[in-house]
């Protein structure tokens, strides 16, 4: 392999210990770092409207509470839809190439936001269209996770994917922490807008110009494409015929869908249910959820993804009941504590469910290849790598639907009943179904259950 960090790497053998220790891990780490940078900004842009929507009424926009929740929710829906093409893009165009492109297009939602939030006369339909472009940031996760899955050996995928995802997820916390601060600072005003009540709303978009430029240049100079990760769309599309793709997609709505949905809704939920409390505290939710994600992957590496996921759904149900109780009696301290616990469980569940996916596809393909010799085994492992990479993005795309369903559900619940309790009860019932699916398919004594429960068994 050339020492000049070629754009395309033609030989990549992460399962070979000699190759990994001498060459692979350094290159993999460098790609992981810049993948995290780009994905972090993608998540930040995706969730910009979770903060901006809370400031629109004071800026002169006459939108209802339900319409504000729609502005928060729509980027979640668009982001989930964008993940489908982004999933297959890495193996068609290369991980480095697609990272450059996916980071570059984020100038569209950031500049559009900076312009239109400075014009209170903007109609709701147009503002909804502007908000939808932030969904481009949501697509980055699918391509980023699919790309990094090719760089690391199977024994390290849980930790590597957990770090990559956590680095991206924490972008939600960054945008919710930094945006309120920077909206109070007079940055370069490209559109000659004036602050409303001391707040420069346009800064929510302008603040990402320099980070985006750094991400694009970093990907161009320090990332690589893998020829071993090249695959046709047809080969990857085979995952839609796998029943476990759909089962894990449903379960992932319960974990990642909850994380991104609650992250999007949390600031506006605090503002509507506890008006006296500052929304600046909202960043704590996605922060603890992001930090707990790699530990979910690491724990799954040690004891099995299905076991962790099963008990995690029980914890999610308990935390949801706690949120229901405290929001009902209007106790903010209890509400915050229960919601932070809920966020932690979404992070752990994200890591554990994502760790299950490569093991499941590996075991399925190896079982089909039994009796075909070493050549059949090698082909099965290559097929499993391609399918699991595609599945990671595909399942992530469906899971991201929670980014729309949860904020939208809160908005409808408040509009119909005056509070978020109805939505929380529905989410609780959904977790119960996810719990049952996890046990039925991945904890009962079966070959697939073994692959999800024990990483060691998945390797035999």
Question: Can you put this structure into words, describing what you see?
Answer:
By secondary structure, the protein is mainly alpha-helical. It has one domain: MFS general substrate transporter like domains (Growth Hormone, Chain: A, Up-down Bundle), CATH 1.20.1250. It is 76% helix and 1% strand. It contains 20 helices and two strands. The protein has a two-stranded parallel ribbon with strand order 1-2. The longest helix has 37 residues, at 332-368. It is globular and about 70 Å long. Residues 1-5, 188-192 and 450-460 have low confidence and may be disordered.
SSE order: EHHHHHHHHHHEHHHHHHHHHH
Q: CATH topology, anyone?
A: Growth Hormone, Chain: A
Low-pLDDT runs of 5+ residues are: 1-5, 188-192, 450-460
**How are the strands of the biggest sheet laid out side by side?**
1-2
Q: CATH homologous superfamily?
A: MFS general substrate transporter like domains
Shape label: globular
> What is the number of independent domains?
1
Q: Tell me the name of the CATH class.
A: Mainly Alpha
Number of strands: 2
CATH architecture: Up-down Bundle
Distance between the termini: 30 Å
Percent in helix: over 70%
From the alpha carbons, calculate the radius of gyration and give it in angstroms: 22 Å
> How large is the count of helical segments?
20
Query: Beta-strand level of the residues, as a percent range?
Result: under 5%
Q: Label the structural class.
A: mainly alpha
Largest sheet: 2 strands, parallel
Q: What is the mean predicted local confidence, pLDDT?
A: 87
